[in-house]
Amino acid sequence: MSTIGWVGLGNMGRPMTANLVKAGHTVNGFDLVPEAVSAAAEHGVTAVGSIAEAVAGADIVFTMLPKGEHARTAYLEPNGVLANADTKTLLVDSSTIDFDSARALHSEAAKAGFRFVDGPVSGGVTGAEAGTLTFMLGGTDEDVAEAKSFIEPMAGNMFHAGGEAAGQAAKIVNNMMLSISLQGVVEGAVLAERFGLDPKVFYDIATVSSGDSWPLRTWYPVPGVTETAASNNAFKPGFAAALMHKDVELAVAGAETQGLDLPAAQLVHAQLQKLVDEGLEGLDTSALIRNIDPKAAG
Ligand code: NAD
Question: How confident is the model at residue 297 (pLDDT cuts 50, 70, 90)?
Fold first, then answer.
């Protein structure tokens, strides 16, 4: 079995590392937040106090961080991954980050003599817990094949999306589509209730009808309807609105560089911006329902 270094033990990193431990690996885990490290230690992660300790002796290092700026810090600062890992160690960044940061990490890692793969994921906390995430991998054939051999206990699907930053490209497009579907779900959930439908009855109808979608089944924004929804838990994330705001912003900005106008993505971005402006970006993304019915998110 292998030694795995892990940086970033938040909503996703915590259950992902649990599956690596279950598969028999030693996982040395670090997070800036001590409570995140102790929560991961409860499922068998070896708690360490720095990135240098997390990467020491690792066959592979994974990072699972919020945004590009966090990933750049974790890799490029003097106390970060590149300055402290052995160049034999394969590096995989599973955070969803902007193209510029992803390309910078590929090139800085290569300059320092490392192999690097961008490997963002889809499937949410439920997929992370179940070990059924979809991984979208960008890098060389050899590096991606090696990364897959470690990723397997966390994944339902693994795709080699293409060369450097191709995993990020696939992920950003996926999340743009997810956010647009979710906007439909939050609008539908409020309208169904206003029409007098029982939320559970409507959910049962829509999940086997043409209105079905992943956010409908997984994130239904009305409490007591589906077990996996953050609405059951006062919209505690889950997937924070701040992170979806970042992802849709990346999609809209990327579209602009291609001369594309994406009206639905822009609309959802404005809806997410509203949550940010109201200080609600720490809530789950399904709190978008609050823009339609302010009482919905408490
Ligand atoms: P999170 O905010 O819950 O966790 C991120 C963790 O990184 C935090 O615990 C934070 O303290 C830690 N961190 C930040 N900078 C650090 C540093 N320099 N060193 C060590 N730790 C550091 O976020 P999350 O929900 O786990 O998401 C992580 C990434 O995965 C994001 O890019 C997100 O867009 C993506 N993602 C999230 C979901 C989801 O449903 N939550 C699904 C798919 C992809």
Answer: low
Q: Where are the alpha helices (DSSP H) in the chain?
A: 13-22, 34-41, 51-55, 68-76, 81-84, 99-111, 124-130, 141-151, 166-194, 199-206, 214-219, 241-257, 263-277, 289-292
Q: 186-200 pLDDT, tens per residue?
A: 999 999 999 999 999
Give the Å distance between the CA of 37 and the centre of ligand 1. 13
Domains of the chain: 3-163 (3.40.50.720), 169-292 (1.10.1040.10)
Alpha-carbon span 147 to 157, nearest angstrom: 13
Ligand 1 atom 9: residue of nearest CA? 10
Looking at the annotation, which residues are catalytic? 171
pTM given for the model: 0.94
ipTM: 0.99
Ligand 1 nearest atom to the CA of residue 67, by list position: 32
